[in-house]
Amino acid sequence: MADRSPADDAAGDRLGLDVACLWLPNAPLTLISTAGHHCEVWRSVGRLVRTGASDGIDIVLKRHREPCTLEQARCYGRDYLELRAALGDIVPPARFVVTEVQGEASVVVLARTCVPWFDLARPGNAEEAVPMLARMPRARAQLRHFVDTARAWRDARDARVIDLFGVANLVLDTTHSVRYLDSFGVFFYPDLLHAVAEPDPALVHRIEVSLARLDYLAELCSEVG
What we know:
225 residues, alpha+beta, Phosphorylase Kinase, domain 1, five-stranded antiparallel β-sheet, three-stranded antiparallel β-sheet, 27% strand, disordered N terminus
């Protein structure tokens, strides 16, 4: 995820948007990423005080950048649920909420906070990743499961490519667990490229990079055993 700049800190920690399903005027929200293709990500840490009880809160809120139809939101939610069913706790629990943002139909995601510590899918990190994973049997098993599942999707009749293009989509978090942090548009569908006369070059590039990074992760699994 993208680091905050001094300008971000100077601007304050408020979402500054009207999200119909949330009461946000005084919410302690901190912007933690603007690097996502589909969304920006905010984090809220604090306490929820209710009659006779006080509960800790630590969640992330992902706001879709563009207006989003109900049909599109359902597609996002369907793909997320399939991802979580296959990958288990590698994918943090999340809830998709169809709502209005600034008066326009949209969707937000509320997810359990996982703090990225190491970007696993970046090939340039291989020199550090190999000895690190060699000391982490649980993370190695999680990574093998992720790679095996992603390759099965890639090779299926209705091929899907898991999105590894983004910044820090697949990470080790601060508990040294493998986490896949994307929520919106987690799959690419290569067959759709053949349905149009001129495929979007940017989409083709994102798929190619995702496939190359999946191959890199498979090599990483082989190296660490």
